[in-house]
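Troubleshooting log. The previous structure file for this entry was overwritten by mistake, so regenerating from the original sequence record. Sequence copied from the archived sheet and checked twice against the printout by T.R.
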Amino acid sequence: QLVGSITLTEEDFQWGEVTDRTQPAPYNWTVAVANDTTQTLDITVRFDFLDESDSVVKTERTSVRLAPAERTTVNEPGTMGWDEANRVFTFAVQVENWTIIEN
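Regenerated output below.
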């Protein structure tokens, strides 16, 4: 049983420089993850790129291991095709899963 909470803050997303339509669009997403529990956790963070009607254009995931009361900032670069990138309007970040690591 999880005692405490996992918090996500400072969510951000930025496009890199796009030179032309034939090249993939670079991006970088970040989020601060805090383990405000009494256990070491493996935490999977899900980042959804959303269009104007909040439909998912693309999903990325990353996992981090955090000790109790530890915090880290996830910084993930990536690329997507031009047409896909043009559909992105906003984003959503959530904790998708967590596992308690037994010491």
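The helical segments are 82-87. Archived copy saved in two places this time.
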